[in-house]
């Protein structure tokens, strides 16, 4: 448990430093006469070092034991470079990670979905995930191989969230009146959200494949 807690602390601190760097870069003006644009929306900030160090040992143990994240990574053969990178880096920090591919690929193990349509791939991946792992994990992270995630930061953020509530995290975008979560940054679903989504996906009237 000590090594897991240490890894968690290091991950969050590194993540916080990275976010700080991005924030600083975001305030640099490019060229002469460039003005910064004021915006009203709020950003979720990475936890600071003090917050992490002040976690009790009980909270750290709860983090490593009770918050179990299953990672779903959607891939295609053309993504082999990013696939290899994700396999060797951040996906190792998931409690379990599996790659769901559009077709069989000999180079890496994956769950073949036999479709090139990303929407259908997502549907099938969620359905398989729920059927296989609904009793084993309480949080589910779906991403592309081009995504980079710090799972320790995610677990810290989820520490006081109830997975039995229909909860999700993601970058929300709007298209007309439709508001949805963009998968490019990854989508996190609680087990209750996945349960409800699976029920809707089974209903072709509410959620047709095409």
UniProtKB/TrEMBL annotation:
Keyword Transmembrane helix: yes
Single GO term (MF): glycoprotein-N-acetylgalactosamine 3-beta-galactosyltransferase activity
Family listed: Belongs to the glycosyltransferase 31 family. Beta3-Gal-T subfamily.
GO biological process: protein O-linked glycosylation
Subcellular location: Membrane
GO cellular component: membrane
Protein name: C1GLC protein
UniProt keyword list: Membrane, Signal-anchor, Transmembrane, Transmembrane helix
Membrane topology: Single-pass type II membrane protein
Chain segments annotated as transmembrane: none
């Amino acid at each position: 448990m000590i090594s897991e807690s240490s890894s968690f602390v290091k991950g969050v601190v590194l993540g916080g430093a990275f976010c700080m760097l991005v924030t600083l870069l975001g305030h640099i003006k490019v060229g002469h006469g460039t003005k910064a644009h004021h915006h009203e929306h709020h950003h979720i900030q990475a936890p600071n070092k003090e917050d992490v160090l002040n976690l009790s040992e009980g909270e750290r143990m709860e983090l490593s034991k009770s918050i179990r994240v299953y990672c779903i990574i959607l891939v295609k053969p053309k993504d082999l470079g990013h696939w290899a990178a994700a396999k060797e880096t951040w996906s190792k920090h998931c409690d379990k990670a599996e790659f769901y591919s559009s077709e069989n690929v000999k180079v890496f193990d994956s769950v073949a979905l036999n479709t090139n349509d990303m929407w259908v791939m997502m549907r099938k991946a969620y359905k398989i995930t729920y059927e296989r792992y609904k009793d084993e994990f309480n949080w589910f992270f779906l991403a592309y191989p081009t995504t980079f995630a710090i799972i320790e930061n995610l677990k810290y953020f989820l520490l006081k969230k109830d997975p039995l509530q229909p909860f999700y995290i993601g970058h929300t975008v709007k298209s007309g009146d439709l508001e949805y979560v963009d998968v490019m940054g990854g989508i996190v679903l609680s087990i209750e959200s996945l349960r409800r989504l699976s029920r809707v996906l089974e209903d072709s009237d509410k959620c047709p494949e095409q």
